Structures are given as C-alpha cells and as structure tokens.
Amino acid sequence: MEFRPCIDLHDGKVKQIVGSTLGHQDKNVVENFISENDSAYFANMFKEDCLTGGHVIMLGSGNEEAALLALNTYPNGLQVGGGITADNAKKYIDAGATHIIVTSYIFHDGKLDMNRLEKLMEAVGKEHIVIDLSCKKRDGKWFVVTDKWTKFSDFEVNETTIPYIEQFCDELLIHAVDVEGKRSGMQVELVRDLALWTTIPTTYAGGVRSLDDLQKFKDLCNGKLHVTIGSALDIFGGDLSYHDVVSYCETK
Questions:
Q1: Is the pLDDT reported for residue 183 higher than 90?
Q2: Domain boundaries, the chain
Q3: What is the band of 24 on the pLDDT scale with cuts at 50, 70, 90?
Q4: Rg (CA), the chain
C-alpha cells in the first residue's frame, strides 16, 4: 500500500474542493481549502519525501501553467489529469508526467469510446495511461460518472468490466464520488470490491480522514490498493498530519 499524494488545481491555485459541486451552474463550488503556496511547493514536498504516483488534477481551464510547473519541479514523479486528449497527452508526458489520467475524454456521451482510447494509446502508449473510474452508486451498482461528475455513463464498475478496462492502461484511479472531499469516511464496500477485482496498480480516493481509517483501509484491501488523501491532510487545512501519513505508509 502506497500513499499517493495529490495537487488539485482550480483557477490556477492549489485547492481542495468537494468534487461533486463542480460543473453545476446553479450551485456554488464548495472549497475546503485554498493554498497560499503554488503547485511547485507541493511538488517539491512530495519529491523530498520520495512519494511517486501522485496526481496533478486540472479542475477546469486556467490551470495548465500551474500543472506544468508541478511537472517541471518533480519530473517523472507525478501523473496529470483534467482535459487530457489524444492531441495534448504527449505534451504532458514530454513535460515530465509519468502518466496522463483520463475519464470524460474516453467515456464520451455516456459510453466508453474505444476510438478515443485507441488514439490515446497511439499517442503515448498504454504504459503512460491511467484510467480514472470515478464512480457513483445507482440502483445498488457502481457507474462511472463524467463531465465533472455530473453525468452517469452506462459503464458499470464490476468484476467483469475491471479486467476488460485494465487491458488499455497501466494503472487505475478510483474516486468514490459520494464521499470525495467530505471527510466522512471511505466507501467500505467499494474498497473491498476493488481489492477483489483489480490486478494492476489501483489508487482509491475518497473519505479517508484518520490513521484509524488508513488501518481500516489496509485491512479491507489487504494492502493491495494505494490510497490518496486530500482535504483531511493538515497541508490542505485538515486535521490529519501529512507527515504521519507518509510515515505510516512507509512502514506498512
């Protein structure tokens, strides 16, 4: 089990946001934290602590400069997502990203668009692709949601689709949309299921808020999954010590 850090960018600044509030014209974005430090500050922190596989997420437009700054600060240490397409993916790999992260680009109009996925693989190679299966529960099943988590796709996340989608990427990133950014505890059922279904490196995001939660997470997945934590960390305005999390995961 590895701790995978994150740098979420909104309006060019490092923030922690309740992701499910993005993309709604009739709702205000709920911001848990806005940092006075730039993306390079956090990228350098993760570099000094030898953390790899962290993700830089561009939440909307106006974040490319900040994302490239983070990649330049910690080359070959970070992944990047948000607005990635087959046309611009190589630019981010060339800038120092180990992987590009995609959801809405390949889950187009509510369906998995194999044409786009194949173009992405041609552009950067399967070894540089992370597929983000941000998912939400509906009728007792997990479905990928797209377009800033505002639209359900028809792609169900289960024991059949996970092995299929793994053929086209190097890693998976799974956001538990209902709990992400809320510091309300993890989606226990989803964590347990992902540990059973996945065979490639997979990072879970959503709701982990304490060292006790980390221990519970490790027990649920038997150490198989990686974990990312955002709003709960003290470096992002929360109560959970970033250094304690790094130390905990180093010894587990």
A1: no
A2: 6-250
A3: very low
A4: 17
Can you name the residues that pair with 174 across neighbouring β-strands? 204
pLDDT computed for residue 31 by the predictor: 77
DSSP string covering 3-43:
B--EEEEETTEEEEE-GGGTT-TTS---EEEE-SS-HHHHH
Taking domain 6-250, whether its CATH number is 3.30.457.10 is answered by no
Residue 132 and residue 228: Cα distance in Å, rounded?
13
Please give the pLDDT value at position 204. Answer: 96
Specify the long-range contacts of residues 101-106, CB closer than 8 Å, at least 24 apart. 101/55, 101/57, 101/130, 101/131, 101/132, 101/173, 102/129, 102/130, 102/131, 102/132, 103/131, 103/132, 103/133, 103/134, 103/144, 103/146, 104/146, 104/147, 104/148, 106/131
